[in-house]
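Action item from last week, closing it out:
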Amino acid sequence: NGQLENIGGGYQGFNNKRLERALMDYIESAPIQ
């Protein structure tokens, strides 16, 4: 059971990294007013 939890936590962390990178890319590419 604990193993499944670790997999879920790792997947969530991976998603957070992807989301953060996408957000940074969006901010960098967005026109600054």
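Closing note: The mean pLDDT is 81.
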